[in-house]
Model the fold of this input.
Amino acid sequence: MPDSTSVEDCHRIAAQYGLVQQFPRSVRELFQQHALEETPKSDDRAFHRSRWWTVLSNASLIDAAKTEAVRNGFAVEVDNSCDDWDYSRAAEYLLGRIRELRTKHARACLISGGEVTVKVTDGGVGGRNQQFALACALQIAGDELAVLSAGSDGIDGNSPAAGAVVDGTTLSRAAALGLNATQSLSGFNAYPLFERLGDAIVTGPTGNNLRDVRILLVS
Done:
């Protein structure tokens, strides 16, 4: 597919948000040395006789999850509005939505696609899905709610997991093992906690990337 953006766009955005100094050295040097290569545009000869179309997308993933949830007797709603939100804001919003659904349905399922964001400082081992899940765990302790968050590529941040599952018992089970969920969250170190609990989702790399899926259940 042709790329409508340019190397100039990359440099402009990086400068606008002060990103260059935050990049790993290998990436930073590409910007500093102006070594980024331009991508082919729509007038490139490679595209004169080519066609392309989407085979799978995040919508495909969401539709499959919705079909399965309906088959299992859940009232399902899809809400992708928190795509690209900070993980903590997304957790608060989606938990509010599933609690609202609980007032209307005995068995409710909220599905959310796309990806949340995490600004990591001196982090441990984890990723955006586990960070989101742990943030939810801190807000649903003792409640009859379950939350799954995972990446379709099987890779979440710098961890071996794709994501994690939490419910109202996560905090008490963690405490019983001497684990501090609040410290794990603030230290961006969610994977060791979920690995100890057996609640990390480990699939290995799937070879596909349809972005992330978050599923919130109440029954």
Observations:
- The mean pLDDT is 96.
- The first strand starts at residue 75 and ends at 78.
